[in-house]
Amino acid sequence: LVDWILPLIQGFVDIREVLINGHPFSFALLSRRSPDRAGTRLHTRGVDKGGNVANFVETEQIVMCQGHVASYVQIRGSVPLFWQQRPNLTLKPKPRLQSVSHDAAFRRHATEMLQNYGNVTCVNLTDCKAAEKSLGAEFERQVEQLKKPDV
Asked: What pLDDT, on the 0 to 100 scale, is given for residue 28?
């Protein structure tokens, strides 16, 4: 079967040559979506037992100027907990946090991020006052429970 499969990535690549104040720059933007737990919004959420989060995307920005290269990598994905958000007729359906232990899957996800990217800065984008309050609170609890200075 391997002879019939062509590996591809789902993502975006753009490279631009620009001139700023008379100095030539090359700017590259590369985004790559993970094939693990890919899915449409509201249908695929959270983490699996292996620590893979839904809709994980890695984006790298590269700037090149006069032989110097600078790179910045940003990653994003679903909140690494077991949760669901089923589509309905409301604009923003309420997420449901599953009542299971999130510890092992969260730790696997965090460990993989640290191995792949080094220090990680977590940004909690959940609405901490409304329907997503329990999801955001559990995410913060999991981060604190890790007790890792590089997260």
From this structure: 97
Confirm if 44 and 37 have CB atoms less than 8 A apart. yes
Instruction: List the structure tokens of 93.
Output: 């359906």
Task: Pull the structure tokens for residue 17.
Answer: 């040559």
Round the average pLDDT of the chain to a whole number and report it: 90
| Nearest CA among 105, 137, 95 for reference residue 36 | 105
Find all residues with CB under 8 Å of 111, minimum gap 6, and list them. 51
At 24, the amino acid letter reads P
SS3 69: strand
> Max CA-CA distance within the chain?
59
pLDDT reading at 93 higher than 70: yes
This prediction has a pTM of 0.83
- Taking the CB of residue 85, how many other CB atoms lie within 10 A of it? 20
